[in-house]
What we know:
Layout: H1 3-8, E1 20-23, H2 28-31, E2 48-59, E3 62-75, E4 77-81, E5 87-90
The structure holds zinc ion.
Zinc ion is lined by residues 13, 15-16, 18, 81, 83-84, 86.
Amino acid sequence: xxxKFMAMAPTVCPKCSGVMEEGLRFDYKLGELSDxxxxxxxxxxxxxxQKTEVAVGKFLxxxxxxxxxxxxxxxxxxxxxxxxxxxxxxAPPTA
Length: 95
Ligand SMILES: [Zn+2]
């Protein structure tokens, strides 16, 4: 993990000044795995963030405007306040 990110990682909640803990948001795919399972940093099932740009798509001959994802697929790290439950997410550059 990038050193700059670790230096900026929140340790104090911006809402209530409680303690922030590092964690990982997950959907049902990761939820089906045991807590003992070690999730690799580059694991595909991890929540990702990716930059987008406006793009035109085509479906069944119809054109529509939407977003296309570009750039690296960064893994998301989410911190949670142990007191108020506030979540703060980061997608640090890959080292
Ligand atoms: Zn808090």
